Here is the input.
Amino acid sequence: MNIQELDRQYIAGTYARFPLQLVKGKGSLVWDETGREYIDLGGGIAVNTFGFADDAWAEAISAQAQILQHTSNLYYSAPCVRLAEQLCLRTGMKKVFFSNSGAEANECAIKVARQYAAQKKGPEHHGILTLSGSFHGRTLATLAATGQEVFHRHFQPLPEGFVSARTNDLEDVKRLLAKYKVAGILFEAVQGEGGVNPLDPEFVRGLADLAAQQDILLMADEVQIGNGRSGALYGYMNYGVQPDVVTTAKGLGGGLPIGATLLGEKAQDVLGPGMHGSTFGGNPVCCAGALNILSRIDETLLAGVRERSGYIMDALTGAPGIRSVTGMGLMLGIETEKDSGQVISACMDRGVLVIRAKEKVRLLPALNIPTDLLKKAVDIIKGVCAE
Ligand SMILES: *Cc1c(COP(=O)(O)O)cnc(C)c1O
Here is the structure.
């Protein structure tokens, strides 16, 4: 049996995979098992910040793996401390809890909000307010937080205490805050899985004001838009607000699993000994890789992200067969006249990998994708949409 057949036999059937087996990559190029080359604009779903098999990152993780690959959280070790220090210095947050994924980073945020509110107002203030069209993960609690009914099917009953407001509708948020005792507001500055839609700036500032007035924790889910992808280090930074909690994962690890929950002034001392934990959280190899990634997300790189983003926007907005281009930085959604599934397979046939978000074609390329490859890929997308 070949790999595709073995996969169907032995891997749980949760993924509708593209008919493509990838065997190696370098930067923004990747090859299948027949040796065919593709330009990658999917980035492993916003994970491969510097593309495939990036030299500096690979060196950082292999050096750490050869010294000390895991210690458990029973002992002190340097890589997670250095990474937490950098995350705090660059965001103004105060403390970090490390986990292994975006969903876990959000689980931690939910626990922090509930514990904060329980201490300050009482345990009945346990509501978590999220937004329609949001996506926060696949664990039961983060599914409950996800404001899309399609994800809730099959798994009832979900944990209680989650309520979602209409996105970009501050009146609806106010109505729900009056009705439920809310501990935290969880939002994505740019909704990724929901269709690559940036929130309205006024709405985000309104959320921040309401959270501050009512002493509710403002929690930014930066799992997808974070770590340089928006053209700023974190997506919320484009909105001039300061969250109390920031969750991130995906691109932070550059390809290894890591989640981080950043706690600001209000939330920094909420968690005490024994209140939360993770066996792999703060793993030295993952943290050494993340430290390398974070150190390279500097102003030069971010300027390059904004420049590439502008190039894609200009090239595709108003092009034949393209209805709209939404998003921010290098997280973009293309609304096409043709079915997005058809566009994605036609691009694949011509050597370009793109992915989907709702009905849109989604682009999440490496932040350092060479401009010649980007231009070539954008021309191919344009051609496919125009046909
Ligand atoms: C992907 C994603 C998650 C879930 O992350 P996992 O690592 O798959 O658990 C949560 N929030 C957002 C915004 C995401 O894009």
